[in-house]
Amino acid sequence: MLQPLHNVNVLRHEVLTKPDALKAALPASECIQETVAAGRQAVNQILTRGDPRLLVVVGPCSIHDPEAAREYGRRLAALARELEDTLLLVMRVYFEKPRTSIGWKGLINDPHLDGTFRIDEGLHLARQLLLELSAQGLPLATEALDPITPQYLQDLISWSAIGARTTESQTHREMASGLSSAVGFKNGTDGSLDSAVNAIKAAATAQSFLGMNDAGEVAIYHTRGNAHAHLVLRGGHGGPNYEPDHIAAAEEAMGRADLAKTIVVDCSHANSNKDYRLQEQVVKAIGTQILAGNRSIVGLMLESNLAPGQQPMAPREEMPYGVSVTDGCLGWEETEGLLRALAHTVGPSLPGRLSS
Known about the structure:
Elements: H1 19-25, H2 30-47, E1 54-59, H3 66-83, E2 87-92, H4 119-134, E3 140-143, H5 150-153, E4 159-162, H6 170-178, E5 182-186, H7 194-203, E6 208-212, E7 218-222, E8 229-233, H8 244-256, E9 263-266, H9 279-291, E10 297-303, H10 332-346
Parallel strand pairs: 1-2, 1-10, 2-3, 3-4, 4-5, 5-8, 8-9, 9-10
Antiparallel strand pairs: 6-7
Helix pairs in contact: 3-4, 6-7, 9-10
């Protein structure tokens, strides 16, 4: 008897809602579309030095509780209006988490946090939350991880990240070349810059690859390339990489590759030695470099939540409200004070960065 050859290890499959059906069920209003367009334009202007403000991507390491995310968004929207002359605050709304080994993979994959993997429900929850946060006037950021997910959500995103684990992936470089938002590539987990520099070049180049269209059909995509791909420094196994000598090395590497010297510093991960409290130290160091004349650092990333710290995964009703279930985060009060202080420190010097 012939042995089966197809889907040998597949237990079952479920048909997913098509992207155009989800968008029809949860459409973006004209006001929301204007918010996203304005957010993308502002981000791109900062990246190309048409806007002297700093880009600040700030918010929870990952979204596990939509209600807490809504509250965080309300607070951030108010702070964004207060600091808008100096900082462009973009809310970090991460629904997918890459895992080094195993673990919770984010709200889209497992919205009930219980291993039931109701992905269709997760996509609905994610889009609904993005719409609600956009309605508050917030530009939004996420990590582009699964190559299918952008068809469901990318129309609501102003800035995207490609993580350290996927920067070397050809699939993600091709995907980034077609993303509608600016995209930041993180340096490798070992701290090396080569993979990110190569990724920026690849993403900026026209690409052709397989993907899924809005109708849920397999399609061949032909892209123009993403002109707003840039570098994100997040440290590595050897330690942080945000000090002046690290920034100079990154500038040199980008110059050799004939890339614009455009850098965002991730204040978390290896740059804070995975201690969320040390993010403040990184922010202050970035401010000092800007005051000293640095022009390549255009933004930073912060992991922040309503309450500080991190908690283990548990049934949702048993978990403290507003505390991260992935990386440790700064609490809201610390975040608010830190961003106000940054704006006060660097604000007067930022317009001069455009004069060189």
